[in-house]
Amino acid sequence: MISVHKSVAHPWQCDVMGHMTTRFYMAMFDDSSYHFLHHLFGWNSAQDPAGKFGWVDVRHSINYLAEVNAGDLLEVRAELVKVGGKSMTTLFEMINLGSGDVAATLEGVIVLFDLNERCAVTIPDDIRKTAQSHVGTDFV
User: Fold this and answer.
1) What tens digit of pLDDT does each residue of 12-61 get?
2) How far is CA 26 from its chain centroid?
3) Kind of pairing, strands 73-83 and 53-64?
4) What is the DSSP letter of 10?
5) Helix (H) or strand (E) holding 5
6) What integer pLDDT is reported at residue 24 of this predicted model?
7) How far apart are CA 64 and CA 25, in angstroms?
8) Residue 116 Ramachandran class (φ > 0 left, ψ -120 to 50 alpha, else beta)
9) Does domain 2-132 have CATH number 1.25.10.10?
């Protein structure tokens, strides 16, 4: 897994029970996904100035494993699990740097999406080959 995001749990991100609320877990995982796509094959929205293609989340499975409190330092790490014809499956782990605990995991499926036609499209061979070379590996 590679590091794709670092953050801190701020008091305003915590709920009435004193721990980080679920909406902010998702925000950190979402921010992490953009960094991960950049690490995989240099993707960013500037590569497509016409705004024709993008990556769309189609499934998330989140496990909350350890409480995150205000002030906890967090790191999200990611790994590519699978590359399909139109989709990729990713795994993210949110680590509490103070305790070393895995606070949460997210397994997600994303698809390459035609933003004009509003449908999933086949991942181009060059992107698929680059992505597949990273399945299950730690890379820089």
Assistant:
1) 999 999 999 999 999 999 999 999 999 988 887 776 667 788 899 999 99
2) 9
3) unpaired
4) -
5) strand 2-8
6) 97
7) 9
8) alpha
9) no
Mention every residue, 6+ apart, whose C-beta is less than 8 A from residue 60: 26, 29, 106, 107, 108
The model carries a pTM of 0.91
69 contacts: CB under 8 Å, gap ≥ 6: 9, 14, 18, 19, 20
Domain spans of the chain, in order of start: 2-132
Residue 11 sits at the vertex; the CA angle it makes with 23 and 9, to the nearest 5 degrees, is 60
For Cα atoms 10, 72, 30, give the angle at the middle one, nearest 5 degrees. 65
DSSP 98-137: TT--EEEEEEEEEEEEETTTTEE-PPPHHHHHHHHTTBT-
Helix 22-41 with 125-132: angle, nearest 10 deg:
110
Continuous H helices in 4-124: 22-41
For strand 119-120 and strand 53-64, is the pairing parallel, antiparallel, or unpaired? unpaired
Tokens representing 4? Answer: 């794709």
* Tokens 């605990």 belong to residue: 101
